[in-house]
Amino acid sequence: MARILTLPIDGAAALRQILGILMDHDFASGNNRVQELDARLQIPWSEQEWVVLKGKDQGIPLSRQDAKLLVSGLYFTEMMSVHLPFFDQVAAVSSWIISELEELFPGVSNK
């Protein structure tokens, strides 16, 4: 069952970055779900809004599988960033996003 996650455009951009990282590291498996979710995250805003990263908050329909995919991507990004100077920022953003996804889909972050 899909639920709606309301995001600002910069939040959607952050999620798209996570999906991009997954596509870069999981391209051989041909994960169509990643590409489909990336496309869905773009739809609510116009091209011009994406250029300036300004637009009204929009609701994005997500399934539990979508949320699990995002959580996996966030955990992967944290793991790959552990030795970078901005790791604390990555971890803080990941924690916030995961808590938002947990509100929609309780238990989605359980490994």
Q: Which SSEs are present, and which pair or pack?
A:
Blueprint: E1 3-7, H1 9-25, H2 32-42, H3 47-52, E2 58-62, H4 64-81, H5 87-104
Antiparallel strand pairs: 1-2
Helix pairs in contact: 1-2, 1-4, 4-5
Structural summary, described in words:
With 111 residues, the chain is mostly helical. The chain has one domain. The protein is 63% helix and 9% strand. Helix 1 packs antiparallel against helix 2, helix 1 packs across helix 4 and helix 4 runs antiparallel to helix 5. The longest helix is centred in the middle third of the chain and has 18 residues.
Q: In terms of structural class, how would the helical and strand content be classed?
A: mainly alpha
Kindly state the percentage of residues in helix.
Answer: 55-70%
Q: Report the portion of residues in β strands.
A: 5-15%
Rounded average pLDDT: 89
Rg, please? 14 Å
Say how many strands there are.
2
Strand order of the largest sheet: 1-2
Question: What is the string of SSEs from the N terminus onward?
Answer: EHHHEHH
> What characteristic shape results from the CA principal axes?
globular
Count, helices: 5
- Number of individual domains: 1
Biggest sheet details: 2 strands, antiparallel
Q: Detail the poorly predicted runs.
A: none
Distance between the termini: 21 Å
